[in-house]
Amino acid sequence: MRSLFFLIISIVILLFTETVYGEKIEVHKQLQQAIDEAHAGDVLIVKKGIYKGPIIIRKPLHLVAEPGAVVDGGGSEYVVTIRAPRVHVEGLTVRNSAYGKGAGVLIQESSHVTLKHVRIEQVHYGVYVEKGTHINLLNNAIRGRDIHFAQRGNGIHLLKTSHAVVRENHISRVQDGIYLDWAKQTVMEKNKVTDARYALHFMYSEGGAAKENVLKENINGIMMMMSKQFNIGHNTIVRQLDYRGYGALIYDSEYVVMHNNTLLYNSTALSLQNARHCHIKDNEFIGNYRALHSLYENPDTIVFKNKFLGNMEDALIQGTPIAFDDGHRGNYWDTYRFYDFNDDGIGDTPHRIRSMYSRLLRKWPSVQFYFQSPALALLDTTESFFTHAQAQGEDHFPTMKIDQDKKETKERSWKLLLFGSVLFISSLFMIRYGRRMTYEKNC
Amino acid sequence: MNTAIKYQWMMMIRSKWLITFAVLFAVLSSTVIASSGHEAAGVFTRSTAALLNLSLLLVPLVALLAGSLFIAGEKEDGRLSLILTYPVSTRSLTVGLYVGSCISLWTVVALGYGSASVALFATGGTWSAFVFLSFVLTIVLTSIFLAIALFVGLVSSNRLQALGVSLFIWAFFVLFYEFIVLFLLSIVPKQWTIFLFTVSIIFNPVELMRIWTVAALKSSAIFGPQLYEWSKWVESASGHFTFIVISCVWVIVPLFLVNVWLKRGKQHA
Asked: Is the ipTM of this complex over 0.90?
């Protein structure tokens, strides 16, 4: 029994070794020729230099590039094409695909392909995966062209692909950062996407997770349409400040759990539009122009255990009412002004979400010009004291306490203290000096 | 001119209620910042809006009251008539009165912003462009309303009249103006919207400062998709240049009128 076990292990190791670690071949020029001449499973060490593209890989290979190894497409449609399983490309720089079409790397009908530490620049699409399975895109840097986003391609496009892992990539200057198109079971972790139209774009996709990504300064952070069963957690979604900018927009999708995300300084942090059976919980909505926007019907979607801090407008409900508690816990609202006499951590009266400004806005969209202006802010505050004012929504279990950890660990700004101290001390000096002046001496 | 500046500064800074306002402004701004719960982030947030609104509500009021009541008081007590007999040119006198008043009120604003910054630091806030920007624009706002206040003070026959006119001007610019524009918006054709908003900024320094602050923070997306093109313009260099020109006009025109009035008064004296 024991020897049988060792025999199986040995066969597995042998098979694995044969596949991944074949002969090591150094490549100095003619990369395509070296690929064609290599045997399946060979390791090609691509030495420093500029190699002429396009390159096509049709067999399982391991391409390890030394720093400075570049494949230049010279304007060809696809600079590197992979049409084989178990291909591993590492450390290569891929550049110059055609304008308006093609990609830096095309992976077609392949499985177990890995791109690692690959730098892709001056391309239309970065990586285009079509009908792939178990594709690993790790630690790559993708940067598109400096043109309007409508003319760019996507950073990573996964079409009809399943079980892809997209981790720690840095994607910028593209149309959409990571685009899931009929994709299944995709994991996106620790990626950073900036200067894109949509950082993460889900279309007709199913299953998977987006975790710990940083989505910064795009038009939209997350755009999810006609998709289902996603876990969106621990992402930082910051500064989507365009007038149509959304931190996340969930449209016609279902069974999405959005949790522990930080949505900071967005035009609208989260918009729910026909989001069904979704749970929005434990997120932080901080400093957004509008924290939550609910449109159409969002049946069985619950927004609870979130923190709403310093948003100009907490929520705009334009469709059917939405649930702001799960029957036990609601959200923390910094605009909630009542008490917790029984000390159970839940406010004694429901938090009624209402805004005269929102009602005006629906009638005259141009009123947005007076967003948080002195007179309208004053009127809004006054109205909040009248309980008969029509509420847009109600949180029946508003949380009274807030976790202060984040505030305590916040880095202090000595520049601020210096500025404040200089102003404070000099103004005190000026007041003292002015008050001690006498007409005879000084005038 | 230096003598006139020093005299005006000395007299205004001795005003007890100006000092009371300084303390009030400092306490309120510190409270607003400290209770906002997070840092001013270099974009237009509710805490930045709260501090800005505090400035937009209080600073015009104090500038108008301090400036107009002081000058009306000087006039009522006969000190202004005395000053007009001095061998000082009216231009020097106008500039002296204005700059002296400005220094006093800038000091008050600096005290408020200084204490607010310290409060922000104490609550774990971080430095952002907004703090400095808001301070500078509040200084500009103070300067504009002081110019208006000097004129109001001069044309008013006594302190009570100056008080009434100042309060009316403040309420008009800060409270009623927006609703008047909103009313006009509801009756004019839609294509006039941008024109109406642009004109409304020109004729109200409070609106001018509010829009300028938002534009300088590159946050004019808050004005919404209806005003997208206009938002791009206010954030551009030509937008900022226009704001500077309008601010200068708001200072120069009242001061010119003050100068004319003083010249006439000097001839009578």
From this structure: no
